[in-house]
Please model this.
Amino acid sequence: MKDKVLPSITEALRLTGVKDGMTLSFHHHLRNGDYVLNLVLAAAQKLGLKDLTINASAIFDCHLPLLDLIRDGTVTGLECNYCGALVGKALSSGLLAKPVIFRSHGGRLADLARGSARIDVAFVAAPTADSRGNISGKYGRSACGSLGYAFSDVQNADRVVAVPENLVSYPLTDFSFSETEVDYVVAVERIGDPAGIVSGTTRVTRDPIGLLMADMAAEVIKASGLLLDGFSFQTGAGGASLAVAYAVEKIMLAEGIHGSFASGGITGKLVEMLNKGCFESLLDVQCFDLEAVRSLRENPAHREISASQYASPLAAGAVVDSLDTVILGATEIDPDFNVNVHTNSQGLIMGGSGGHSDTAAGARLAIIIAPLMRARLPLIVDRVQTISTPGRTVDLLVTQYGIAVNPLRAELSARLRDAGLKVMPIEELKHLAEKICGVPKTLKNENRVIAEVLYRDGTVIDTIRQVN
Amino acid sequence: MKDKVLPSITEALRLTGVKDGMTLSFHHHLRNGDYVLNLVLAAAQKLGLKDLTINASAIFDCHLPLLDLIRDGTVTGLECNYCGALVGKALSSGLLAKPVIFRSHGGRLADLARGSARIDVAFVAAPTADSRGNISGKYGRSACGSLGYAFSDVQNADRVVAVPENLVSYPLTDFSFSETEVDYVVAVERIGDPAGIVSGTTRVTRDPIGLLMADMAAEVIKASGLLLDGFSFQTGAGGASLAVAYAVEKIMLAEGIHGSFASGGITGKLVEMLNKGCFESLLDVQCFDLEAVRSLRENPAHREISASQYASPLAAGAVVDSLDTVILGATEIDPDFNVNVHTNSQGLIMGGSGGHSDTAAGARLAIIIAPLMRARLPLIVDRVQTISTPGRTVDLLVTQYGIAVNPLRAELSARLRDAGLKVMPIEELKHLAEKICGVPKTLKNENRVIAEVLYRDGTVIDTIRQVN
Model:
């Protein structure tokens, strides 16, 4: 029996045969606390490796050291589903010669499955593992809970290296993926900073505009006719998204509605709703806080799922296809309901689709919730700078001034009007904001393309250009 | 979203595109109570399908209707890891023109992974499933516990059809494999006869010879030096195998030894040992009784594993590679320690390797335990009729008359002698039996080859010939 435990990342790079031009993958469950991507790339740099491509489910600003590795040619390619604003700004300045490839969480898996993306060696940051490579995110000082996004890396990579912080004796029975897929194990002292991995508490917004929009969104869900026994729901971890969960919970408890599941990234608020009987189960691709990690560890009704099961358009079935309602954000939206979550008003990369376009495509009701203007910049523009999610998959927009329903959903619009909700054409909301903020200048950018946005079907849905 | 629920097996055969010449797969977790293989093949016959190959992890005598389907040309190929005696006898008479392909549990997965076996459509008997194809063996009237052998089918088949008895509302969170791999769901009234699926109780042998051998085997394990904290163990469900578990438990409790895991097919006895602290965990590829099913459902230290994780020689790691000791049976053994578990004294098929050769290859100590003669037929023969497990992987033989150690393991032999155990050359045990029973006539069989036995590395280790 081959001993899988290696003394260093350097040794793992050697034994997995990493060569110039290869692709290394990383998952983002340690979020802005991750040390592993930087550790691996520093070792690669020391070995003099060049021309590597990084395929990471997401890049955060804790990965700023990546920029130096791009500058010296260690890394020449980047593929991710999300990119933090500081790294994003540097990429927008044209740091990489090759365009960054942006995918959605589901699209990444589909591209791996169809071979239009590939991984030579996957490095899996592992809160806990055993010496044979059984891995769990639920235990240890750096527990992050679900390892949903790493399943595809483990399954698709030619070689897999587990990088555990907490090495336990074989067998780790509560593994997320098993020894069958893991070639080497390199224990390190720290895989990340727990403060950046999960937040201890998740606080709902106290902003009155956020609370107003949350109540409107909950009313929309109720009026849509979907808020019945068996209801399924997804919302994010931001203050306004959480506020929607509170507002939905209030209705569900008041009316005795027993939902089926909540999915996606899971917060303590959704755990609370599970425990109050609002849902039968949580399908968890990523834990956003410590309460979610604890619940995933202890409650069998709270189940870790792979990103494929969450969102892959090529899987025989995915959770997003069974989803009733999803709450999503936007930096920009246009009259065709196209949504931008990739770039800011200056056109700088500061985010990415994540599961945005996947859930919008799958859910029966995809709700965008966003304030009509931010820092005197209107939300609704003539044409979004970057199409992250195509308008045909977006059902409606909730702002503090009113609700705009996609004209493709006339029946939904009628239901909301019948319920007395303030529904108006999206153009009217646009004019309203422009009256307050003025019409923003649209910057014509014909610079070099520095990123491609791939839709979940693998096609290029938009490009992002250099900003000088 | 495509509706996966179909009204009939016939419809599933149509929609999965099953055509003449294709391969259908089945798992054997319902053992001698399985209805699903017969149901599917009856539907295929009605559709007039011909020339099908059945790849089943095991065939039991409940599958006798298969013989008629072979006779009428519906089925012309059979691949399995085990075959019950009644079906086996018919196959031995030359019913199939093509040789039956016998594999080991690990070899089946390896052949699927390397493409030397393939599955067009997998039919998965499912004690419980939801409408999207999340499947569990732990719940329902026909609960069988682990679905370990079905993982490879689900992962490798072009199309997967779940055949649940108990259809529950989405999502079934405690799934063994998920909606991502399952194309269709066909609910049926009964997937099997619970009496044949699991036994309510598993009784240890009361046969004094079996008990004597069990005590000797336990003494061997102790003397081998492996019975320390961290000890790992596998034994079967037969009376004598269970008796070894009792004998090992007695030593472990008396000496305060805390083992690491027990693996393979799990019985209530091993559950009891887990609960008494003899082991930290159970790694379960198959539940043999109701107590094991209950424990798997309730105790997180009792973990379902895939057959790949159990035994695949091509996986990056498998449990058998970490196994200290395995207890195995034999119908015949020869002076080179080759073991036959495929054919009886007349050369008729009545079994198969299952995990026999996988665990023998992996375990540090592979013990064969068998009475020196059965019905006046000696266990030890000049040359086994069928090599199921090569002698180089077998460490020793325990019989009621003494212990024979493989000459390749001189150091082990010395340890056992030092411990005062009755170790003797295998030839001496052979002569002893022949003095009692006489020397059996060896039948020269030059008939047509009706089965090939593939070793876990994919090579043909032996052939089985027609018996007229």
